[in-house]
Specification:
Radius of gyration of chain A: 30 Å
Strand order of the largest sheet of chain B: 4-6-5-10-11-9-7-8
Strand content of chain B: 5-15%
Distance between the termini of chain A: 46 Å
Distance between the termini of chain B: 18 Å
CATH class of one domain in chain B: Alpha Beta
Number of helices of chain B: 15
Order of helices and strands of chain B: HHEHEHEHEHEEHEHEHHHHEHHEEH
Shape of chain A: elongated
Oligomer: heterodimer
CATH superfamily of one domain in chain B: Amidase signature (AS) domain
Low-confidence stretches of chain B: none
Radius of gyration of chain B: 21 Å
Helix content of chain B: 25-40%
Largest sheet of chain A: 10 strands, mixed
CATH architecture of one domain in chain B: Alpha-Beta Complex
Number of strands of chain B: 11
Number of strands of chain A: 17
């Protein structure tokens, strides 16, 4: 691992807490639906409203999703975990307490691995625990009053907590993206950040290298990767300035304002509530038998890191390619189809990471919406591999495929006349003519200037209207020039 | 024909089936008795229309030949159970006129069995109290001596049964709230094993202790009621046990020859009033006559049950009662400034003194820095108390002793001394903390002619054994048939 990058002589330390909303149909402790965007208070049953006499009953689907997550990040699944009550008063908290896990969480330990550029990073997880979401207070639509919408109350969340392992905003964002990839890949969370399905809190502090950890401030509710980076960068600069100006950092919870690009303290440690956690007597300990874990494991889709390892092993891809291609299930599937159909895994990888990615990024669409299908790409790759067309010609074919002006690779090659010259006689004639027409270059080449050789290759390619195979041109030229 | 209000549940069911009387007439009979003795303060809510409609439905089922055991038999519910058809107040101003959109599981099970609801019964506010003086609405008077308390918190239930205003009632027991008023009013009550009855729809006081149970005139009646009330409720209450309903009537009458009755020596110490002691001694002698063997056992942490209970129960209560914040339902202060002010005024106005006291105690023991010393320590001792019982049950089949150290005291006697009330719970708290089933059966009379109850405690799921032991006693004695004068 390279030494951490310092900012004005300070090392940045970042830890994350992420709330991933679990993709269950019903709530974590009631049978009310979890769908987003319904009319206020239409998706809250007596349990969600905390009506007298109601009791929580654990949704097994939420537990299974927590187990899936734990397995995906190599955590320990606690055979017995405890639900606790976090007590505080707030109008959108119907029971006056939130049911969460405190001392013994369901998912313990684990690691999230990802690439930051070419460097492999790993962030250790402390834990992931199940808890219920609160409702929402609506202040806009009411004059002198607040509305309460309890549709979200009781929505299952998995709170994923890291060690303070990240050393830059880039690394923090890369971690968040990787985590996002994992939860959406295994399908436990829809990952919709606008709707609040994946919310990150970043604990940020700075210190002199080798010194004790600095006091942290927690940036709450970062709901886009862009704001995440801006907020953390601002917070780092702010903290360093404070320290440089001789002011100590106070532990605080802060909010990021996208309009000003600044973070602003909500509350400091002094106002921290005493939540009076205690085990919820309404819920017995959550017992997870090894058989349950194994059943979940056997029903899980192949994990990205497992799939990446398989790509390295089965297709001989470099690790970097394999990791990149397993950014999403759809991309991995696209690659596998193209690789299998063409029999050219590395070429397929190059094309997907190159041309295909460039196009979809430019259009801002997912790979599912790529206008060249995996089988179309495979056909194209086959034509490169068998020498029918050059890479340059292939790009032209790809353009046609993408624009939708043609769908049959061979027909496009034919109609555009992109087939490489395979007639050695014709090529020899062209090369003889080029040698004859460029005596200066020939002389310079013979005097030892390689540049002159490239010029001759260029002339030959031009004369062939791009249809010559550059490798073949090279070879013939060298032979004829006696090199 | 025996007076309707003197008939057992089984007799009433038969009377109805034989068409000697209709369920509507039967309900009217008890409603009339309730109205005539309104001064006892037993009922908080009655609704003749609703009751008679339920009775008419039972009559229709009877006419169709439905032979459900309790069909058409009236019952009244402690106002801690939520009901669609009656307001559910938990004896608190906080829930004045509160209407639940659903029935408690216990209520709906009894309704499904065909029982007709007479109304809702008075209790200590949120079931917190031993005298029923903590009801926000009115005190309940003991029919044996109306200057005395009926016990609590299920005081209304005990009085309704004792004064024959209802043939049976539901109660709840957190630290003795079924057994103690049953003892004070001379009725029979059973608190089952924690988890046997669903807590869904019981307004929570202390979740790890609260348990519903029947109160009636005999063990036989309690067996019928308990059978109908209990059963798994896994979709609504995670603490309800997967035990199939057991027909407790079937095991009544089994021999108790050689039944080993454990007498915990800690229950017979200095604090026990002589009049109570003598009634209990008499009962144990009766058991010996019936062939049982008395063995001395020890429950060494009996005294610790008081501090342990008064830490755990208030801790849970302080959290359970947080939902009463004026936001969604129940009382909200009329005048307030900001949100915090609304919370403060709402709760200051809505809760009575004892509830506030317990919320404060509970909040304190859960607070940062005190949790380990109080709550955690209490949980450890709670486990030891449960272990003590398991040791005792190696030597005996059931445990017998007093329910309370004295007979019912005078209204206002404990005045502003909540500790006096707390200490009087000493014999019921250990069984509650251990989650064991426990009963109170009338076994004699003490000072002032007040009833004395014998407490029987059994091991987990031993309700059948307890009910049989109680039944055999009641076959040989008539304390449970005695009736306060004027009722």
């Amino acid at each position: 691992m390279s030494a951490p990058k310092l900012i004005q002589g300070y090392e940045v330390v970042i830890g994350f807490e992420t709330h991933a909303q679990l993709s269950t149909q019903s709530k974590i402790f009631s049978r009310a639906p979890t769908a987003f965007g319904a009319e206020p208070n239409t998706q809250a049953c007596p349990v969600d409203l905390a009506l007298p006499g109601t009791l929580p009953v654990m949704n097994k689907g939420a537990v299974e999703r927590a187990i899936e997550f734990g397995l995906a990040v190599n955590s320990t699944i606690a055979p017995r975990s405890i639900f606790a009550r976090k007590n505080y008063f707030y109008p959108d908290l119907p029971k006056g307490y939130q049911i969460s896990q405190y001392e013994i969480p369901v998912v313990q330990g684990g690691v999230v691995e990802f690439y930051l550029g070419d460097e492999k990073k790993s962030v250790r997880l402390v834990r992931a625990h199940l808890e219920e979401d609160a409702g929402k207070s609506l202040h806009e639509d009411f004059v002198g009053q607040s509305g309460i919408d309890l549709n979200r109350a009781g929505t299952p969340l998995l709170e994923i907590v890291t060690e303070p392992d990240m050393r830059s905003s880039d690394e923090a964002v890369a971690y968040a993206k990787e985590l996002h990839k994992i939860v959406t890949w295994i399908g436990i969370c829809d990952g919709n950040m606008q709707e609040g399905s994946f919310r990150c809190d970043a604990n940020v502090s700075v210190r002199k290298p080798g010194g004790p950890l600095g006091t942290r401030r927690e940036i709450k509710n970062l709901n886009s990767f862009k704001f995440m980076q801006q907020a953390i960068d601002f917070e780092i600069r702010w903290q360093i300035e404070e320290i440089e100006d001789g002011r100590a950092i106070q532990q605080a919870t802060v909010l990021f304002d996208p309009d000003t690009g600044e973070t602003r303290a909500m509350r400091t440690k002094e106002d921290a509530a005493d939540y009076r956690y205690f085990p919820d007597p309404d819920l017995p300990p959550l017992a997870i038998a090894p058989e349950w874990v194994e059943r979940v494991r056997s029903e899980m889709a192949e994990l990205p890191r497992v799939m990446a390892a398989r790509f390295v092993k089965d297709y001989g891809l470099p690790e970097y390619d394999a990791t990149t291609l397993t950014q999403s299930k759809a991309m991995a599937a696209y690659f596998e189809e193209a690789a299998k159909a063409s029999g050219q895994a590395k070429l397929a990888s190059n094309w997907i990471m190159g041309e295909v990615s460039r196009r979809i990024n430019a259009e801002g669409v997912a790979i599912e919406a790529a206008r060249v299908t995996a089988s179309g790409l495979a056909r194209l790759i086959q034509r490169i591999a068998d020498g029918t067309i050059s890479n340059n010609a292939a790009r032209q074919v790809f353009d046609v495929l993408w624009s939708g002006d043609g769908a049959d690779v061979d027909a496009i090659i034919e109609s555009k006349g992109l087939k490489q010259m395979s007639d050695t006689g014709a090529l020899e004639k062209i090369i003889d003519e080029v040698i004859a027409a460029n005596p200066d270059n020939v002389a310079q080449f013979k005097a030892g200037k390689d540049k002159a050789f490239n010029a001759l290759v260029g002339q030959a390619m031009k004369a062939s209207k791009g249809k010559a195979n550059p490798a073949q041109v090279n070879e013939l030229l060298r032979r004829k020039l006696g090199a | 024909m025996k007076a309707l209000h003197e008939q057992s549940l089984a007799e009433l069911a038969l009377t109805l089936r034989d068409k000697e009387i209709s369920a509507v007439e039967l309900a009217k009979h008890f409603l009339a008795r309730g109205a005539a003795h309104e001064g006892l303060g037993a009922y908080l809510a009655v609704n003749e229309e609703v009751t008679l409609a339920q009775a008419a439905e039972a009559d229709a089922r009877l006419a169709k030949g439905d032979r459900a055991t309790l069909l058409g038999v009236p019952v009244a519910h402690k106002d801690i159970f939520v009901t669609k058809d009656f307001a559910s107040t938990a004896g608190s101003k906080m829930l004045e006129n509160y209407r639940s959109p659903f029935d408690a599981t216990v209520v709906s099970r009894l309704a499904a069995a065909g029982m007709v609801t007479l109304g809702k019964l008075n209790c200590d506010e949120f079931a917190m109290g031993s005298s029923n003086e903590n009801s926000a609405y009115k005190p309940v008077k003991n029919p044996w001596d109306t200057s005395r308390i009926p016990g609590g918190s299920s005081g209304g239930s005990a009085v309704a049964v004792a004064a024959r205003l209802a043939p049976a009632a539901t109660g709840t027991d957190t630290g003795g709230s079924i057994r103690q008023p049953a003892s004070f009013c001379g009725v029979t009550g059973i608190k089952p094993t924690y988890g046997r009855a669903s807590r869904y729809g019981m307004i929570a006081f202390a979740s790890s202790l609260d348990q519903a149970g029947p109160m009636a005139r005999s063990a036989e009646d309690c067996a019928l009621m308990l059978w109908a009330m209990c059963g798994p409720d896994p979709d609504r209450d995670s603490t309800s046990l997967e035990l199939l309903p057991e027909d407790f009537s079937k095991t009544l009458g089994a021999s108790i020859e050689c039944l080993r009755i454990g007498m915990p020596k800690e229950f017979f110490g200095e604090g026990l009033a002589p009049d109570v002691r003598s009634a209990i001694d008499g009962a144990l002698k009766e058991y010996v006559k019936l062939g049982a063997k008395i063995v001395e056992v020890s429950l060494p942490r009996t005294e610790l049950a008081i501090p342990v209970y008064y830490i755990i129960a208030p801790a849970e209560a302080s959290s359970n009662l947080s939902r009463f914040d004026g936001v969604k339902f129940g009382h909200r202060a009329k005048q307030y400034g900001d949100l915090l002010d609304m919370y403060k005024k709402t709760r200051a106005e809505g809760f009575g003194d004892e509830v506030k006291r317990r919320i404060m105690i509970g909040t304190y023991v859960l607070s940062h820095g005190y949790y380990d010393a109080y709550y955690l320590q209490a949980q450890k001792i709670r486990r030891m108390i449960a272990d003590d019982f398991q040791n005792a049950f190696k030597q005996c089949d059931v445990i017998a002793g007093p329910v309370a150290p004295t007979v019912a005291w005078k209204l206002g006697e404990h005045g502003n001394d909540p500790l006096a009330d707390y200490l009087a719970d000493i014999f019921t708290l250990p069984g509650s903390l251990a989650g064991l089933p426990g009963m109170s059966i009338p076994c004699g009379f003490g000072a002032g002619g007040m009833p004395v109850g014998l407490q029987l405690l059994g091991n987990y799921f031993a309700e059948g054994k307890l009910l049989n032991a109680a039944h055999r006693f009641q076959q040989a004695t008539d304390f449970h048939l005695r009736r306060p004068e004027g009722f």
